[in-house]
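Researcher: We plan to redesign the surface later, but first we want a full-length starting point. Tokens attached.
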């Protein structure tokens, strides 16, 4: 440990675990974007809130920028450390701290993986209902920092809706106790909600108190094949009116192709343009309602084929067709757009966007999937063989600027659930106006006066 700044940190915190091996720097210095070369100063793995506070105070004294790190499953470059920052990984702070059966809350350290949190809630006969495919590796701190949504937003909302309170070490090293799990609190600004979706730019989330829900009802999963997107919206309206939907997800034939290549089982003998996987409360009445809704949609020509799960194993197979998409595309290192519009605006937006991408990406494969129930579309652009990565990214960024214009016209957002990070920073103005961005900068300066908390992310100073 030759850097004198690290020597000073080690002297201040002799029990702090510090990593400087090149393999560790690469592993902890990037997220799933893989577009920046990791170059952190070192990796700090604190085991307590006090150690996090001491790290921040050291950083202020030494002028070292900090990058908070959870599971690093983000897709916007929010956890990238490419300019000599100290990465502060919360992976050792991964314990449950307390359960309150009256308030039905669970308090955990920020480094707890989402799946471990879900399991802990289940042990108390309750559920933490926010869910997505990266549940085994993403952490609750990262989920809060990006206000992650996932596959059940239609029923349960985003992460923000389940955060009763949190503790944040700000850029001054102060520990802020925000929200305090009060159901009602009209005593001024709710700073808890500033921390949610702040992407580590206001401080490091170290602890969270989360509301829990009743266990979800028994459910069934239905996979439907559809001829076009307009039919998809009509099917959504029909099922939402007749069933208690837990999830409603769509994907295209190209998305299915990649999942099947990755090892999933083909659901139908024929290939269709669009697919929906939907989960709904099960029971004799619900099964009858689902069958009636299915027959109605078939009769209208909105559905071409379908299957309803008859077992948990079959339900898992059907969900794999949706949840396996991101993993199946990972070898291509796709350029990803994660956008949102109002549900009512989705048909018009999709038609215009498909036309735009067909015109601008004539030789690129574009894979679509998303969450219809909350207006969130994922657009994955695959690099053609033989095209250099920098040229591919430059071309995608040119088109993303055009896409941001489409979103602005439809009142949408350039980031639905992945955050802004580095990737989407140039397009923030399509979602937020100048006055809003100026206010956000001002808030950031108050909580991080030295500009050391995840600098360069979200917006420039």
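Model: Full-length starting sequence:
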């Amino acid at each position: 440990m030759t850097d004198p700044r690290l020597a000073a940190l080690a002297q201040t915190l002799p029990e702090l675990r510090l990593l400087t091996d090149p393999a560790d720097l690469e592993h902890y210095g990037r997220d799933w974007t893989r577009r920046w070369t990791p170059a952190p100063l070192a990796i700090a793995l604190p085991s307590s809130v006090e150690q996090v506070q001491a790290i921040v105070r050291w950083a202020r004294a030494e002028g070292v920028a900090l990058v908070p790190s959870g599971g690093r499953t983000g897709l916007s470059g929010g956890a990238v450390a490419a300019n000599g920052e100290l990465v502060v990984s919360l992976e050792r702070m991964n314990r449950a701290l307390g359960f309150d059966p009256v308030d039905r809350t669970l308090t955990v350290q920020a480094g707890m993986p989402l799946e471990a949190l879900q399991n802990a809630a289940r042990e108390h006969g309750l559920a933490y209902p926010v869910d997505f495919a990266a549940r085994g590796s993403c952490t609750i701190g990262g989920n809060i920092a990006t206000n992650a949504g996932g596959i059940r937003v239609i029923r349960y909302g985003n992460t923000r809706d389940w955060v009763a309170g949190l503790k944040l070490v700000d850029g001054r090293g102060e520990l802020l106790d925000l929200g305090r799990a009060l159901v009602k609190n009209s005593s001024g600004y709710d700073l808890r909600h500033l921390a949610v979706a702040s992407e580590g730019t206001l401080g490091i989330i170290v602890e969270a108190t989360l509301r829990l829900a009743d266990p979800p009802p028994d459910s069934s999963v239905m996979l439907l094949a559809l001829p076009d997107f307009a039919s998809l919206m009509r099917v959504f309206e029909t099922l939402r009116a007749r069933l208690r939907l837990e999830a409603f997800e769509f994907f295209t034939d190209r998305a299915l192709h990649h999942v099947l290549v990755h090892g999933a089982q083909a659901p139908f003998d024929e290939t269709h343009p669009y697919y929906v996987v939907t989960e709904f409360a099960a029971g004799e009445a619900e099964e009858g309602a689902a069958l009636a809704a299915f027959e109605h949609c078939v009769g209208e020509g909105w559905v071409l084929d379908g299957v309803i799960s008859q077992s948990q194993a079959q339900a898992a197979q059907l969900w794999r067709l949706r949840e396996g998409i991101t993993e199946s595309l990972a070898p291509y290192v796709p350029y990803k757009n994660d956008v949102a519009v109002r549900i009512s605006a989705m048909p018009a937006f999709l038609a215009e966007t498909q036309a735009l991408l067909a015109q601008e990406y004539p030789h690129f494969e574009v894979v679509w999937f998303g969450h219809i129930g909350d207006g969130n579309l994922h657009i994955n652009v695959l690099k053609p063989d033989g095209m250099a990565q920098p040229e591919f990214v430059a071309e995608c960024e040119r088109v993303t600027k055009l896409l941001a214009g489409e979103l602005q016209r439809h009142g949408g957002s350039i980031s639905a659930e992945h955050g802004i990070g580095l990737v989407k920073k140039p397009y923030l103005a399509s979602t937020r106006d100048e006055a809003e961005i100026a206010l956000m900068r001002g808030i950031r300066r108050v909580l991080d006066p030295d500009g050391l908390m995840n600098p360069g992310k979200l917006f420039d100073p």
